[in-house]
Amino acid sequence: MNYRHGGHARGGYQGRNVFEDVPRLFGEFPNVSEIKSAFEKRKLDRKSIEPYFTRVVNEAGEFYKWAPEKRLANAITVAAYLVAQGLKTNQVRKTLEMVRMTELKVKRGDEDIKNDIVKVRYLLAYTVGKATGQSKYPLESFHGVLDPMLEVLMKEPTGENFGKFYDFLQAVVAYHKFFGGRE
Known about the structure:
The chain is built from eight helices and no strands. By secondary structure, it is mainly α. 36% of the residues are buried.
């Protein structure tokens, strides 16, 4: 599915019924099966998910306080929004790899990760900056949710905070794929 920022891709949802009970899909416990079904039936779009995504972005600076179930619910919302925008996994592959390498460092007991966090942050900004055309919008959204988290991690680069960030990111990637996101 290819979506344009601010609208729908050619042949998208024009004239089709968009899923009407979006709040039920993106509540405290998102209904992933129905979200996937709505995507498959082309009844879920960026605009309908945007208020829930915006809520996550607004709360991202306090991600380390999220309970595990809220972290998962927020990751599901972000993944769905990124699928609706057409984000491809390969657009963020370098960032994901750096985060995985930092996770391995933390697992080995090395909690000196501040430089790694700084590097992830500027690499993500670079990825957004070099994008052109329609591919830029989903990357800006991805950056919009991750950058406040990375900013917190720069200030408090603990293994615990990084672990919560990494769990969130893994869940976003997993549900992005589950909802039909492409490589």
